[in-house]
Design goal:
Layout lengths: L1 H31 L2 E2 L11 E2 L6 H20 L8 H22 L4 H17 L6 E5 L2 E3 L2 H21 L6 H11 L1
Antiparallel strand pairs: 1-2, 3-4
Helix pairs in contact: 1-2, 3-4, 4-5
């Protein structure tokens, strides 16, 4: 029960940080004239600030740190310890986040973004986190490392791009991601 409350408090803390940072970022974009101009591929009809998503990673990171410190206090641990895949996951997340910011500011080609997505996704199998079992899907159970690593990279890049494609409509990608998380 206490764990659920702590997770809820971490979520609320992250949301509050978002509510604080988003207006600051939007004002910065207005001052610097950093707008996404509508065209035939865009859903919006007027210019909107580009960097609205800038605050999400810091908000989630602060909530994560507070959650980890709180869980450690309740579990009796004296220090935080990170395993290899946690570090690789954070590095890949930071890599994708930075590419997104650079793309918003100066624009990057699709090939560059795709290459960086693949490199970021490759960090997971390198850390030992890969698909090793399909649990009978298509009659396949055990998957060796090389096939599982390629499958893992493919799925991460595929889902990242699928979410990115539906991100043009406000709230759609977040709603679908939340539904998928709850399933």
């Amino acid at each position: 029960m206490i764990e659920t409350i702590l997770v809820l408090l971490a979520f609320l803390f992250s949301a509050v940080l978002g509510f604080i940072f988003i207006p600051m970022i939007l004002n910065f974009c207005k001052e610097k004239k950093l707008y996404d101009i509508p065209n035939s591929r865009k859903v919006h009809s007027k210019a909107i600030p580009r960097l609205g998503g800038l605050c999400f990673l810091p908000s989630m990171f602060f909530a994560f740190i507070i959650t980890m410190l709180t869980f450690n206090n309740f579990s009796g641990e004296k220090e935080l310890s990170l395993n290899l895949w946690s570090v690789y996951f954070f590095v890949s997340l930071l890599l994708i986040y930075c590419v997104g910011i650079i793309d918003d500011l100066i624009g990057l080609g699709a090939r560059t973004k795709f290459t960086i997505q693949i490199l970021a996704a490759m960090l997971m199998p390198m850390a030992g986190l890969y698909t090793n079992n399909l649990y009978g899907f298509l009659g396949i159970y055990e998957v060796n490392y090389y096939v599982g690593a390629v499958l893992t990279v493919f799925v991460i890049v595929f889902i990242s791009n699928a979410i990115n494609l539906i991100d043009g409509i406000d709230g759609l990608s977040g709603s679908i991601s939340f539904i998928a998380l709850r399933s």
